[in-house]
Amino acid sequence: MKTTNRLMTFARPLAAAMALAGLAALAGCEDANSKAQPAAPAGPPITAATVIERSVNETQEFSGRLEAVDRVDIRARVNGFITSVNFKPGSVVKKGDILFVIDPRPYQAEANRAEAAVSSARARADLAKLELARAERLLGDKAIAQREFDEKASGLKELDANVRAAQASLEAARLNLSYTNVHAPIGGRVSKAEVTTGNLVDGTVILTSVVSSNPIYATFDGDEDTYLRVGRVAQKGATVPVKIGLANESGFPHEGKLEFVDNRLDSATGSVRMRAMFDNTDNTLVPGLFARVQLSGSDSTQAKTVLISDRAIGTDQNRKFVYVIGADSKAEYRAVTLGPSIDGLRVVRSGVKPGEKIVVNGLQRVQPGAPVTAQIVAMDQDSKTPQAKTDDTKTAEPKAADAKAEVKPELKVADASAKTKE
Predict the structure, then answer these.
(1) Residue 30 sits in the same domain as residue 49
(2) Residues annotated as region Disordered (predicted)?
(3) Structural domain count, the chain
(4) Which of 70, 134, 166, 225 is most buried, with most CB under 10 Å away?
């Protein structure tokens, strides 16, 4: 009985100590759990940039083709057999170079005959002049009748006309003789010979073709907006710069100017024919090549323009939109009207104002009216989306573990002392 009372007396302080230790451990866990809970998230992390405004000369890009300023199909002007071809296919020829030679012998003979006919007609005319002079003296002496004198005067006029006709025939014969040498009417690059030596040709046969190489045209179809922007400027004679780039070139390295704008728009396509002229001293540009055309406005068309990055633009069916970040860090949906791309940025006709902040990265995580956590970068900078911070959560877990580690040794000491007393 005394032993039982002694044990009960010893157990009461032990139970009280264990209760206090349990309460301390529970308090430590609650404190650790309270520290481990992170703060409510402010919104998904995104990257934002400030809408900028610049004075720019707007450009538009089109697809076009290069065309020669002059192009000539070479044909024979007289009939005959080709006796020689005097050019290398694809070479550059000068104006006046002999490309083909047609057998000149028949035309040389015709020229000789016509020359002889002229000499004969001139001799008869000279004789008629002498006879008319003699008749004039005889008429003064009344040795001949007036009628005879008139006949001789009329005969001289007829012979003079025959001389002129013979001279014209001679000129035609000499002209035909000159046509036996087929010359290049323009300077440029010649094609291959379509007819070789020994073939009979006439005026219906195309012998070859020559295209000019410098300068050269780039022809393209502009839209209605382009016509309203630069059409009248070009028609007044102001310079409208145009640049082109070939398929194997980056950018638009060749510079020229707008040379022609058609007088009407095609109602079926809503486009207008335009043409620019370029220097081609190095013969890099060849007629028929595809070209990327960049059309700029004149210097007088420069104005303040709102610019944003293409990364900030979203598509909603047939509309384009951006998310504008308000003063309360909430995203606002804005429909925008876009223009051309200039120096890597997109022109905005309406929808945003300079100085407003828009989302440029992370559009898929943004909801209209929802808060966002924005990192501000430059509009033309490629930025990565910032990662969410989890430092509070990571630091809370070790604290909770430390609290539990501090409670456990106390319980073990209490158990050991109890066993010793027993």
Answers:
(1) no
(2) 379-422
(3) 4
(4) 166
Supply the range of the domain harboring residue 397. Answer: 2-38+391-421
Choose the final residue of a domain: 286, 301, 316. 301
CA gap 221, 293 in Å, rounded: 10
- From first CA to last CA, the distance across the chain in angstroms is 16
Per the CB < 8 A criterion, the answer to whether 255 and 241 are in contact is yes
CB environment 264-293: b (16+ within 10 A), e (fewer): ebeeeeebbebbbbbebeeeebebebebbb
The model's pLDDT over 108-152, given as tens digits with 9 standing for 90+, comes to: 999 999 999 999 999 998 888 888 888 888 878 787 788 888 888
β-pairing, 181-183 vs 45-50, is unpaired
* pLDDT beyond 70 at 205: yes
Length of the chain counted residue by residue: 422
Contacts of 332 (CB under 8 A, 6+ apart): 323, 324, 325, 326, 368, 369
Copy the structure tokens of residue 348. 């905005």
**Above 50 in pLDDT, residue 391?**
no
